[in-house]
Automatic annotation (TrEMBL):
Belongs to the IMPDH/GMPR family. GuaB1 subfamily. Pfam families: CBS, IMPDH. This is GMP reductase. It comes from the Bacteria. The gene is guaB1. It comes from Nocardioides cavernae. Its EC number is 1.7.1.7. Coiled coil: none annotated. PROSITE patterns: CBS. It catalyses: IMP + NH4(+) + NADP(+) = GMP + NADPH + 2 H(+).
Amino acid sequence: MQFLDGATPPHDLTYDDVFMVPRSSSVASRYDVDLATDDGTGTTLPLVVANMTAIAGRRMAETVARRGGITVIPQDIPIPVVTDVVRWVKERHRVFDTPIELRPDQTVAEALSLIPKRAHKAAVVVQDGRPVGVVSERDCAEVDRFAQVSAVMNQDVVTVSEGTDPREVYDAIERAKAPLAVAVSDSGELVGVLTRLGALRATLYTPAVDPSGGLRIAAAVGVNGEVADRAAELLAAGVDCLVVDTAHGHQDRMVQALQAVRALSPDVPIAAGNVVSAEGTRALIEAGADIVKVGVGPGAMCTTRMMTGVGRPQFSAVHECAAAARELGKHVWADGGVRHPRDVALALAAGASSVMIGSWFAGTHESPGDLMLDADGRPFKVSFGMASARAVANRTSGESSYDRARKGLYEEGISSSRMYLDPDRPGVEDLIDQICSGVRSACTYAGATDLAQFHERALVGVQSAAGFHEGRPLEKSW
Ligand SMILES: NC(=O)C1=CN([C@@H]2O[C@H](COP(=O)(O)OP(=O)(O)OC[C@H]3O[C@@H](n4cnc5c(N)ncnc54)[C@H](OP(=O)(O)O)[C@@H]3O)[C@@H](O)[C@H]2O)C=CC1
Ligand SMILES: Nc1nc2c(ncn2[C@@H]2O[C@H](COP(=O)(O)O)[C@@H](O)[C@H]2O)c(=O)[nH]1
Ligand SMILES: [K+]
């Protein structure tokens, strides 16, 4: 990456401060761009879902890995639960989505409470392992809540066999004008579902899979307690990448934790953070990190900068840390503050191998929270920071009242924030589509066919607030 005219900016910059200038390009199509990462995580998209309880659950992990990214299960989740989640995610189908399953005798009320867990807004009715119908929200409108789903389900279902090419599934759905297709095994058992858009995506994305073909998943450990024991249990559970995570990553306790985790396995990719300086990056790489997590204070749920004055504008932090990591043959993830596809493109231009997203993905069907409606009927989910009073109270629930009260004083995050679902993009895959189109397009503007070339060729300028404002679309006339 170069700054325009070779200039060195006089102060640190964040995403809104910068723009990229188009360069002469021989890349004919945006589909010619390969977005795979080279940081050892095996992801085919540069996207990591942040280890936040309100965001990173099994459904998020499944959905994002099917499109090529990876999700980090938070450090606060008990090991038996993580083990279960990892097994479940690895058993998911690489092409077909996991539907909500209902028995024919379940009620419309139950269907309506479960269907919002799926962006495709339907559930499959299953008897003896075999699909017997599909029920959508529309089928349940103006029906007695205690009616059985067998009375309202649609039995005229597009059924395909497990091995059907997604392009053929697309055509079958299109021909039948159906909302989705249901896939079955040779013995007629339910395998999964695919919408028309899902079938299209299956032809465009490559899932992030481990050597045995299971979808990839990561998990976090903190720096306190029996770090190496938890990390060993996570590895035994089958996680593909470990993340050692604490607010102030450039501290002795992190170095010790990282050394202990690295000693467990020479091969597993380990990410660690957070830091925002070249010195911090080098310290974590020397202690065993393959990837350094960069970002102090940019997160949407984060109050660290307001509480402490500490942090660093994220574009400059990523740029400096990525350069330091690259000198040692290692990588960085840009963690936090991503609100638009352009931020992902700029983080990659600055040298990140992947970009971590938290709050933006909270407002999707796949985040773990329940869908709520505000007074105007707009759907949202509640998100909260991992250093918020709410998260600290959860994390310390096993400790004495005195210790909890002591820890509760250090609050550096929001406990309750409404993340609204975008009516046009309510699923995380809709956001991934948008991000990938933005990043693919940014690569062709730079004349790059992959992320290494993109980083090399990106030409970045510094803009005023008016320059940024000019780039925003106008919803009404001026
Ligand atoms: N990227 C960011 O800007 C930030 C991210 N977070 C996220 O919140 C989660 C919880 O992290 P964390 O609060 O570190 O909790 P942890 O449970 O990981 O504990 C942090 C440990 O570091 C010690 N410590 C020393 N200095 C600091 C400091 N300035 N801030 C925090 N701890 C310090 C604490 O001791 P003692 O409590 O005795 O001081 C404690 O032992 C993580 O997921 C983290 O990524 C949190 C804040 C900022
Ligand atoms: N200072 C705090 N930082 C937090 C907290 N919870 C999470 N985080 C950080 O934010 C990113 C995600 O950023 P986002 O803008 O995409 O939401 C996450 O990975 C953490 O590094 C918190 O309570 N306080
Ligand atoms: K912030």
